[in-house]
Amino acid sequence: NIYFSDNLFRIIYNTLFGLSTSFWFAISVRFLLSCVNCLLGVIRAYASEVASEEYHALCLSVVSTSRGIGLIIGPAIGGYLAQLSIFSAELSYISLCYWGSHCMLVAA
Question: Which of 14, 24, 35, 102 has the largest CB neighbor count within 10 A?
């Protein structure tokens, strides 16, 4: 199942990103995460199938817009939560990545 494998890879690579100790390891893990992320194509195909012909452009623009908003708001929320941490900076970052992965698992 594409959805299950996509969530599994996102959980693994998101946790590895939280455990990264160098800049290049973090960049490599994010690159691998982008390579195995196949959910956006599935969502676009589903949106095209569900909507009528006259609303195709609107549906695809809503998908792209929501992804863009998530890419902006997600790191902002993560940065805010990292500042609120009572632990060390490294431990709080790992815990944020862990809880993000846990939320993805629950949402699946």
Answer: 14
One-letter amino acid identity for 41?
G
**Alpha-helix residue ranges (DSSP H) falling in the chain:** 2-18, 23-36, 39-50, 56-83, 89-107
Distance, CA of 39 to CA of 5 (rounded, Å)? 10
Report the domain count for the chain.
1
pTM: 0.56
Contact 14, 94 (CB under 8 A): no
Which position has the token pair 């006259």?
54
Torsion angle defined by CA atoms of residues 44, 45, 46 and 49, in that order, rounded to the nearest 10 degrees: 120
Could you read off the pLDDT of 47-87 as tens digits, one per residue?
A: 888 888 898 889 888 888 887 887 788 777 767 766 766 55
Contacts of 15 by beta carbon, 8 Å cutoff, 6+ apart? 97, 98, 101
Answer for the pair 78, 95: CB distance below 8 angstroms, yes or no: no
Residues contacting residue 88 through CB under 8 Å, at least 6 positions apart: none
